[in-house]
């Protein structure tokens, strides 16, 4: 992955417990990547039971006082409040016991249920029951949630019922695919009619700025939560320069922080991440 804000990502996954992704243009790939990064954050010390014939032992990643080399990875949860394409080579967790098993094995838990006939694309993962979702978010140390859908298009305007932010979300990342630049709105944007622009309109940098700054766009339902803009699909130097200009406008005009990112073709195969 290429990006312009490595420290920002590290800060994000260290300081925020429930991160929801909205928008379009690479949310599932970003979800897997953030979960992978969150798994690398050291856990705090915690009791882990008794060693045979000894006093209780404690584990803390890198701590010198640990009597035995016992450590664990963070309890990271990947899930959705809508639907997402099931990442390849991932075991699906449908119960609390499934999540606990994955965490004990040092893996991120992917929580949801398979789509049933009549629920659309059967390759997609559907949201778990609300009670189970809330319980697992509270047990996890970091949760990354896909909270929006965009029909695989790089840009979208949210409908009245979107996004589906879980109440415990503390950070919202609004994602947009920079491949939309220069394309006709009707070709690259989900729910483009909500923009008020003609379908033949070609997407500009200013359109992206306005969408990400709008409380009827990327910031919809964010309220007082932390908000960041993510410009994905910056696969060329030209798109990276465009992204830098957009981020500067967001920062200077609206006080919105953000970053750009670019995943390789291999990285876009969601299952490549060793979670």
TrEMBL record:
Pfam families: YqeC (PF19842). NCBIfam families: selenium cofactor biosynthesis protein YqeC. This is Selenium-dependent hydroxylase accessory protein YqeC.
């Amino acid at each position: 992955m290429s990006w312009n804000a490595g420290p920002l990502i590290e800060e994000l996954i260290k300081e925020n417990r429930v991160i929801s992704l909205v928008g379009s243009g690479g949310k599932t790939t970003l979800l897997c990547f953030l979960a992978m990064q969150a798994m690398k954050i050291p856990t705090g010390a915690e009791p882990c039971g008794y060693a045979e014939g000894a006093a209780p032992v404690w584990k803390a990643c890198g701590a010198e006082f640990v009597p035995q080399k016992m450590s664990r990875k963070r309890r990271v949860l990947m899930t959705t409040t809508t639907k997402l394409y099931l990442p390849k080579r991932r075991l699906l967790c449908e119960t609390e016991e499934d999540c606990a098993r994955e965490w004990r094995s040092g893996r991120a838990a992917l929580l949801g249920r398979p789509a049933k006939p009549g629920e659309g694309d059967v390759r997609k993962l559907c949201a778990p029951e609300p009670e189970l979702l809330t319980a697992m978010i509270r047990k996890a140390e970091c949760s990354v949630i896909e909270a929006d859908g965009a029909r695989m298009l790089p840009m979208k305007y949210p409908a009245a019922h979107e996004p589906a932010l879980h109440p415990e979300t503390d950070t919202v990342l609004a994602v947009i695919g920079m491949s939309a630049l220069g394309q006709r709105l009707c070709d690259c944007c989900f729910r483009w009619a909500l923009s008020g622009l003609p379908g033949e309109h070609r997407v500009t940098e200013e359109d992206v700025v306005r969408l990400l700054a709008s409380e009827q766009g990327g910031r919809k339902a964010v309220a007082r939560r932390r908000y960041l803009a993510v410009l994905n699909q910056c696969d060329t130097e030209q798109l990276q320069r465009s992204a830098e200009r957009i981020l500067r406008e967001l920062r200077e005009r609206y006080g919105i922080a953000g970053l750009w990112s670019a995943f390789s073709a291999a990285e876009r195969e969601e299952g490549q991440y060793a979670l």
